[in-house]
């Protein structure tokens, strides 16, 4: 289950990250990585709230979706490497912006995902 989810998550990350990076036309800032990580945070917020709400998500489905799909879709190691590259290139403001956006938008997306499920289950 983890492998199947991971396969799909990795493909989605590749396609979405590349598409976002292409449409932003940015060579200076990793918008593609930011996008998949924020989307992933929103989705993990949705899924974790569903699991906590006893929505009938069994262990196998949790492994497929949360560990496999979301684990391969989001990319903390790429975020770390891209931030390090910005620092190496003396683009300190962009490095700080990258870290700040990932933290603020990522945590906000998890919260919004959880609230989405809470409001849908009313």
Quick structural overview:
The protein has helices at residues 2-24, 31-52, 59-73, 76-88, 92-120. It has five helices and no strands.
What is the string of SSEs from the N terminus onward? HHHHH
| Secondary structure: helix percent | over 70%
| Anisotropy-based shape | globular
End-to-end separation: 30 Å
- Kindly provide the radius of gyration, computed on alpha-carbon positions and rounded to a whole number of angstroms: 16 Å
Uncertain stretches = none
Could you describe the largest sheet, including whether it forms a barrel? none
Protein described:
With 122 residues, the protein is mainly α. It is 84% helix and 0% strand. The longest helix is centred in the C-terminal third of the chain and has 29 residues, at 92-120. The protein contains five helices and no strands. The protein has helices spanning 2-24, 31-52, 59-73, 76-88, 92-120.
Key terms:
122 residues; mainly alpha; 5 helices
Provide the fold topology.
Layout: H1 2-24, H2 31-52, H3 59-73, H4 76-88, H5 92-120
Helix pairs in contact: 1-2, 1-3, 2-3, 2-5, 4-5
